[in-house]
Amino acid sequence: MKYILAILVFVVGLLSSCYEDKGNYDYQIMNDIIITLPLPDGNDVFVLGDEINIQPELTFSQGVESESLTYSWTFDGTEISTEPVLKWIVDKEGQYKDLRLAIKDQDTGVTYYGTTMISVTSVYVNDGWVVLSEKDGKTMLSYLRSTTKEVEEDGNKKNVYDCAVTKDVYALSNGGEMLGSTPVSINQHFVTQWGGQDETSWLWLVQKGGQGCVDISGSTYHTEGRLADMFINGGYPEGFEPQQVYDLYLLSMAVGTDGRIYTRVKESYELFNTSQFLNDQVLSYNGNPIDGTMIVFEPSFMDQYGVLLYDKNSKRYLQVCDYDSYTGAVYSGRVTAPVVQNEEIYEAHPNWARIDDMAGYKVHHVGVYAYQEYGSNVDGGYRAVIEKESTGELYIQDFRISNYGKAATVVSQNEVSELKGIIGNGAKNLYSLCFYQEEGKPYLLISRDNVLYLYKFDGDMGKRLIKLHTFTHNVTTIATGGGSYEQYAGVGTEDGEFYVLNLYKDVIEEVIKTGDSEKKIAFKERDFGNIVQVIYKLKTVRGGSW
């Protein structure tokens, strides 16, 4: 009994001790923090050199901000700031890495976190204009990234189109190394659509001097291959002088100044600088060499499994096939001729030029545009400017091909008498067909010497041809593709001026109504030397099957 009583006294004393000790601890009510990191304009992709400004949104459980807080901003684990508000000039690359804010309450020792994912890429990876020019006898490659700038108009601030210009980007990226001289052409191609910087387009650059024809990485602007090394004998075939180089999914095509085409079939779409060209035969149709000086190449439009060209030798349109991703069939290098599907249209219009026999017609230009019917895949539409040799009459010829190796559908052939006096007659004409014809941009741009015209396919009679701008010097290159649905066109002139023209509907309507528009020229930059070619370089392939 005494033993049990002793235990009870001990337990009661222990409980009493615990109760009394409870008041000795300094218990604090936690002022928990919820951190939200709003990205500027909701944008999660930035380039090196951008400034990121983020004012974190903090919610405190007690409704008031704690006084003893410290801040640590990190990107991909590296601290970039200790200020409450982030102002960071981006200097580190990373694909969808953590941008994190850690806030520590020094009174409690508790750290709270907020995080978001962003990507930081090379300055030269994103969509933008690439200008190939010759200045002071040297090839110059320049990159102009589309951006915006803030201006004040009627007392209000707004963002307008602008470009961040990097002239001679190749020399800057290669320690001052020069490309060469006498530039001829550039074309973009894609290494892969999956992952990292390799998804960006690369550039085939043709020049006569220096390094010659080279393949340049679109993210580092380093030379990754030389065309001459890709021929089976380590050099060009006799008499071959490159004019253009195209890379498709598996098919590569090197076109000479005489129009002859040399091809190779790659083992993988990722192998752009392996395997070799054949140099013992040229691409032919019915045993005769094909002329490749009029190839319709839209690098981001790959559902067609190849390219279309107008062969001046056989006087007909031909398809150079590539790869059928739906069936896995490899057709690379095979040449087919589109067969007319709706033959009855020629019965109703016997005077129309036949796409399978263009004898008696001169093809001035043929371009590709995208169209989509009944929810199907985006297919290829083609519009050509043709001239009837016996009369000099000019027409727009419109036809469509759903797949390479398949039948073509002839849509229309309309006379365009407005173009008389603009096309031909010793003038220098250049053309660019907007890719998104069915998205509010039914335009064909045509230059005659120093004057640029816009032909509006759905315009009213008498208002289809618009004199868009008169430059001080001759136009040397036109490229559409700037922005979504081709809102902008890039134009280069022989005196080294580069223009970005605004093709928004309201601007075109103002030009039609008044003859001009202050909004017409969105951007202008000088001092490129002699501009040879401009392209709108895409970061990733659009609307294609690869």
Description:
This protein is 8% helix and 45% strand. The protein is mainly beta and 546 residues long. The longest helix is centred in the N-terminal third of the chain and has 21 residues, at 2-22.
Strand and helix layout:
Elements: H1 2-22, E1 33-36, E2 45-47, E3 51-54, E4 57-60, E5 69-75, E6 78-81, E7 86-89, E8 94-105, E9 110-121, E10 128-135, E11 138-153, E12 156-166, H2 169-173, E13 183-190, E14 201-207, E15 214-216, E16 223-226, E17 242-247, E18 251-256, E19 261-265, E20 284-285, E21 288-289, E22 295-296, E23 306-311, E24 316-321, E25 323-324, E26 329-330, E27 335-336, H3 344-348, E28 361-371, E29 379-388, E30 394-401, E31 408-415, E32 429-433, E33 443-448, E34 451-456, E35 465-470, E36 475-482, E37 488-493, E38 498-502, H4 505-514, E39 521-525, E40 530-537
Parallel strand pairs: 2-9
Antiparallel strand pairs: 1-4, 3-7, 5-6, 5-8, 8-9, 10-11, 10-40, 11-12, 13-14, 14-15, 15-16, 17-18, 18-19, 20-21, 22-23, 23-24, 24-27, 25-26, 28-29, 29-30, 30-31, 32-33, 33-34, 34-35, 36-37, 37-38, 38-39
